[in-house]
Design a protein that fits this description.
Length: 434
């Protein structure tokens, strides 16, 4: 099939590349000329495991192309994916100006029947608004479909190629059939393509992300409570998670959820509730608890240094909001860095992928180390913010020898409490007996 993808951000790029991988001819459109030029030269603009291999392969096979022309995109695709940004407005709602702006232009340029697909996470009712924006400009037949993505950063290619489910919100048989044909190669395993109305599809995405954020947040509160009563959250987590109704995944406590999705989507659903005279009390609490959780290590660090962090040398391992990504949006590390800088600490950080992004934000206020051990040289304490695999089994003797003091504040519970104490470390983690 011929497919066009409007917007080559994270979602658009993964969608376009993976659809090319199953033999479709994909044209990706972006207004950023520099970016398009680079992609034409084979440069992947984001870090995402496996993406570069697929990108390269499909460009070489002539199935993946790039352009800045919306008109070209519209003429090329039978299905046109909208993968445009929906940033968070000041009031927490999703800003639809990019999506609706593109819809209007599509209406102006439409020459024959197309299926227009909302791939971005958009508030309930957006498919109707996109339909209206296009219909205002044209009399040509078209359908709008909602097809939310469920990609995790770091696993996006895998998630796209082997989805647990595909959700299609459509009220047109013609559009549904085309979408089913497109996705069939991805669900050979027997996983379902679930067809529903557009509004339900739009809500499915927000409900799924908000539920997962709530699950994590609930566990963070249980962890905090464990500390108060002397219980061990690792035991509680396994005790709970083995109940198949609860499930083992997404029960890991830590320094809060971050990223480009959970924080934005929870707030947007909360706001959408308000707009429809419904108060999501539970989401209100999730937002509040997560804000506190991101800074949960700070009072402990303050207490350890007796409130005096001036010129203390603090090492940070992990800056990205989670491993396997360079994404720092809403990353807990940023909040911790900000607070430590305000206290006058001197920070040396290491992250395998995210240092450039953090550098752009904090400039020379912090130092970046070329590797994890350079970061801890003479450090008065180490703070772990992201659970990259390489941090899981460090050389503890090296840490003891090269740090100023053997002190670790672990926001991701990487080490066994007893083992690390036996190694002679002062160790503070989340929700476990010390
Ligand atoms: C999330 C969802 O998992 C995807 O299904 C969804 O498609 C995506 O948002 C999206 O809307 O685009 P992502 O934000 O990439 O994916 O990352 P997750 O792996 O879900 O992690 C989100 C945050 O939760 C991270 O900060 C992570 O550290 C935290 N987390 C996750 C925990 O604190 N504990 C856990 O047990 C799991």
């Amino acid at each position: 099939m011929n497919i066009s993808v409007i917007g080559t951000g994270y979602v658009g790029l993964v969608t376009g590349t993976c659809l090319a991988e199953t033999g479709n001819n994909v044209l990706c459109i972006d207004i950023d000329e520099n970016k398009v030029k680079k992609m034409q030269d084979g440069v992947v603009p984001i870090y995402e495991p496996l993406l570069d291999t697929l990108f390269d392969r499909n460009i070489k096979a002539n199935r993946l192309k790039f352009s800045t022309s919306l008109e070209e995109g519209l003429n090329h695709g039978d299905i046109i994916f909208l993968a445009l940004p929906t940033p968070e407005d000041e009031d927490g709602s999703a800003d639809l100006s990019y999506v609706l702006g593109a819809a209007k232009n599509i209406g102006k340029l439409l020459k024959s029947y197309k299926v227009i697909v909302d791939k971005s996470t958009v508030p309930v009712g957006t498919a109707d608004r996109v339909t209206e924006a296009i219909a205002n400009e044209t009399t040509v037949d078209f359908d709008v479909v909602s097809n939310p993505e469920f990609l995790r950063e770091g696993f996006a290619v895998e998630d796209f190629l082997k989805p647990e489910r595909i959700v299609i919100g459509s009220s047109s048989d013609k559009a549904t059939k085309l979408m089913e044909k497109l996705y069939k190669p991805f669900v050979r395993s027997g996983n379902p393509i679930i067809v529903m109305d557009e509004k339900s599809a739009e809500l499915t995405k927000y409900a799924a992300n908000s539920f997962l954020a709530t699950k994590i947040t609930f566990m963070n509160e249980i962890a905090n409570f464990c500390e108060k009563i002397g219980a061990d959250v690792d035991k509680v987590r396994i005790g709970m998670g083995t109940d198949s109704r609860i499930g083992k995944r997404f029960l890991f406590p830590g320094i809060g959820y971050g990223g480009s999705c959970f924080p934005k989507d929870v707030k947007a659903l909360h706001k959408s509730g308000k707009d429809n005279n419904y108060n999501f009390d539970i989401l209100n609490a999730v937002i509040k608890v997560n804000d506190t959780q991101k800074r949960i290590l700070l009072p402990r660090i303050d207490a350890y240094f007796k409130g005096d962090l001036k010129d203390k040398k603090i090492a940070i391992w992990g800056l990205a909001f989670k491993p396997e990504t360079d994404d720092i949006r809403e990353a807990p590390a940023l909040y911790i860095i900000q607070d430590l800088l305000e206290r006058g600490a001197s920070i040396t950080a290491f992250d395998p992928e995210a240092m450039d992004n953090v550098g752009r934000k904090f400039g020379n206020q912090i130092t970046f180390a070329p590797d994890m051990y350079s970061a801890i040289q003479d450090a008065d304490a180490l703070i772990i913010c992201t659970e990259w695999s390489i941090f899981r089994t460090p050389d503890f003797n090296k840490l003891k020898a090269e740090m100023s003091a053997p002190v670790i504040f672990d926001g991701r519970n990487l080490y066994d409490v007893q083992d690390i104490k036996n190694e002679g470390f002062y160790y503070s983690s989340i929700g476990r007996k010390t």
